[in-house]
Amino acid sequence: MHSRTMRSLAFLALCSAAAAHPFNQYKAQNLHQKSVGMPLSDLKCNMMAGVNASNIDTLKLDPKFTGEIAKYTCGTDRGIFVLQRPEYEGLTFSCADFPLDWCATGSKTCDYAKMFNDNKKQDLMDKIDLWFEGVFNSSIEKHPADCTFDAYGAMSCPEIHKDDAWKTAPWVKYINNEPIRGVNIGGLFVLEPWINPSLAKWGDDIRDQLTYSQDALSGGKHGCSADKLKDHWATWYTQDDFDDIKNKKQLNTVRLPLGWWYFAEGAGIKENPYVVPDQNITDPKHPINAVLQMIHKAGLKVVIDLHGAPCSQNGLDNSGNKSMSTNEDEWGETWLYEKQCMDDTHAVLEFMAEWIVEILPKQGVNDTVIMFELVNEPWVFSDISLVRDFYFYMLNTIRAKTCKGDCPSSYWTYKTLPLLFHDAFRHFDWAWLLRHYDLTNVFMDTHLYHAFNIADIASDNEGCDRQKITITENIACQYDGLLMFKHCTSLPVFVGEWSLAVDNCMGFLNGSPVSKQSKNNWNAGQCHKGGAAQHVDSPWWQEHYNNFANRQIYTFERQLGWTFWTWKVDEVGQKDPNSNFWSFSQAFGKYITLPYGEGYMGGCDMLESVPDCIESNSNKTITKDDRFFATDLRNMKGRHW
Questions:
Q1: What is the C-alpha separation between 123 and 121, in angstroms, rounded?
Q2: Which residues face 47 on adjacent strands?
């Protein structure tokens, strides 16, 4: 046998062995299937819309404006860039060495300052856009951060994203041709100690819904009770809540987090360690179905979310099963690698799809569900390719299903039901993970918080607190580039969770017990005395929280829309001043106002001039009555800085 043939057979054997690997249990992509999104090389990076031909001649007179643009472009990629146009082939440029034809005729040199001086209006804007494009295209990865430039840069893909994503969503006609605007119903069916502090004596022994259930089912040594939990399901949310969400708050959607244990019986899973309702999930009187009927009656739509998967997809208490491992890198691995855990997850999701498509419509909830999220927040350190394979497996399984008899009248069939993938807090990876697959009516969920990472939360005095909020206000505008990148290169994006918190000071926010909290939630002084308590009613802070909210909403509504986390916390939780930044019902009217995303600052046309953390508090005492001044702004309309 020829050696070439032997090598070919060996290669085929190797491929077969790889395909049979126990962790590679899903079929491969079809290389003939057109990929979603567009190549990274086709992305556009230009100046933000707030800077344009009508105001650039005024803005360029301020050296701070031109200096900041130079600061965030000239320091990128060794300070060099290329212009991928035929006339500039073979040339390398920098901020000190722009093309000579960008400056006045006869110029012997052309740096960025002279370029600004020698050009006007649209001619100047065209050169700035070429500059930004050159810097972005010279970057290694074409990462969304490569087109930020401190929020001056704006990413786009005109071939795909011709209009705001929500305008072409399959459910848009069902929500009055608006983006999704909504809240999460957190803490109702999946307990979280910080949302439900009054429900248990949270600590070492009772830390999540699993340990609550285990105590309740074994005599209640620690005070947990099945009857108390059932009463919670039946009474914590009422029709008044959903009517308020729809009418007074003018929202159109709720996201409903659910645990796998409510669907275990229907999925054929025999072992279930959780307290569950007395009714079967197919019974209209089941608490989940009763809540959905209230949602339907209020005229709201719902995103159904598997918030807790068998064995826990992330090791967090919001999955119903908090990991006690001190090695957070391995959280969620049992779910991903243990075959029984994955098999049970498949069974639960398949049954939940039946419940949505066939069972709920027969209960009169036939025009309410607009998306089905396959799992919430797979752990960020998981093998993301296996998470992708899991999504593809469930997509194939659900799309292949048929109704048992005639399909009831509903918005969706199994082939059209909109499915939602959570990004596992990974952004760039999805640009290559979703290639060569039919992803019709599939969307991406991302959660954008500022309350968990040290870089976001650290501040040990009022001055640093103020620096922190102004930076997050700017980041809210920078999100536009991140979300646009995700939409351009993978799927349309829905922001399923966000808040106004810029620290982790809400009681139990990082879980219970406190002794097992992550080092990533380190005490850097962010919960210093005063803190949230003096921010709640301060005019300065109210205006900045209002701005922070408006900018997030403004940005999110360029995509599919948003649901705030969460609608409310219980009575004990409300006593914590930090709850004002997590509870929509408390924040509304104070920090979140109507019309959504159109606050006094006008979206992202104006950016914050960020104070120094030390200097802002070193020479004066900042009081809660300090007002917000217009001079705090970088106003892109050219009136003032």
A1: 6
A2: 153
Name the maximum alpha-carbon separation found in the chain.
Answer: 90
Among 370, 423, 444, 447, which Cα is nearest to 172's?
Answer: 370
Q: Rounded to the nearest 5 degrees, what angle is found at the Cα of 159, between the Cα atoms of 157 and 161?
A: 55
Cα separation, 78 vs 83, whole angstroms:
15
CA angle 27, 31, 33 (to 5 degrees): 95
What is the rounded CA–CA span in Å between residue 126 and residue 112? 14
> The tokens of 171 are what?
């459910």
Give the model's pLDDT for residue 148: 85
Give the pLDDT band (50/70/90) at residue 405. Answer: confident
Per-residue confidence (pLDDT) for residue 616, from 0 to 100? 41
Separation CA 2–CA 10 (nearest Å): 12
Q: What is the DSSP string of 123-172?
A: HHHHHHHHHHHHHHHTSSS--GGGG-GGGTEEEE-TTT-SS-GGGG-TTG
The helix/strand count (H/E) of the chain reads as: 21, 14
* CA atoms of 110 and 94, how far apart (whole Å): 10
DSSP string, 382-398: S-HHHHHHHHHHHHHHH
- Mind listing the pLDDT tens digit for each residue in 491-547? 999 999 999 999 999 999 988 875 555 555 678 888 887 788 889 999 999 999 999
CA dist 447 and 13 (Å) reads: 42
Q: At what angle do helices 226-235 and 209-216 cross, to 10 degrees?
A: 130
Instruction: Check: CB of residue 635 under 8 Å from CB of residue 606.
Output: yes
DSSP 8-state assignment for residue 588? B
3-state secondary structure 167-235: HHCCCHHHHCCCCEEEEECCCCCCCCCCCCHHHCCCCCCCCCHHHHHHHHCCCCCCCCCHHHHHHHHHH
| E strands in 266-348 | 301-308
Q: Residue 395 has which token pair?
A: 């997509």
Q: Give the Cα separation of 512 and 47 in Å (integer).
A: 45
Mean pLDDT of 263-267: 98
Is residue 183 within 8 Å of 251, Cβ to Cβ?
yes
Q: Taken in order 224, 230, 231, 232, is the CA torsion positive or negative?
A: positive
pLDDT the model gives residue 211: 98
On whether the CB atoms of residues 535 and 623 are closer than 8 A, the answer is no
Structural element, H or E, at residue 67: helix 63-74
Residue type, 138: S
| Cα of 431 vs its chain's centroid, Å | 16
555-587 pLDDT tens trace: 999 999 999 999 999 999 999 999 999 999 999
Rounded to whole angstroms, the Cα distance separating 387 from 422 reads 10
Can you give the pLDDT at residue 587? 98
